[in-house]
TrEMBL record:
Source organism of this protein record: Ensifer adhaerens (Sinorhizobium morelense)
Transport keyword on record: yes
Name recorded for this polypeptide: ABC-type sugar transport system ATPase subunit
Keywords per UniProt: Sugar transport, Transport
Top-level taxon of origin: Bacteria
UniProt key word Transport: yes
Amino acid sequence: MVFQHFNLFPHKCVLDNVTLTPMLTKGMARPAAQKPAMELLDMCAAVAYSEPALCDAEAFALKKGNPLKLMSYKDIADNADVKIGAPDGGTEEKLALEAGVPRDRVIVVPDGQSGLKMLQDGRIDVYSLPVLSITI
């Protein structure tokens, strides 16, 4: 059982939502993107949730070499100069706030491409996103 919410397209099936990112960001063909997506969805199918948030984990996109040595939301909260980008409607925003990152340092971004562009341009120091967005 996989629950769809948080930055997913409601008119697409689970598999289409999971394969869309590697197709758009890596230029993968649908069949190539579907194979690892199916493996991830098979892992999710083995878990039953009563009140799920997501069936994956969070990840950080950082500048090359991780110059600020950010490994957790706590690290971000502890560094007053760090701004974090989080997907609109995602659990990442909630996790950052729960870890003590002040609201004014959590920048909500509309989509993954915008988050990566903001990171490249230096408008945020870290972009928090679902791991499915970057590992497929």
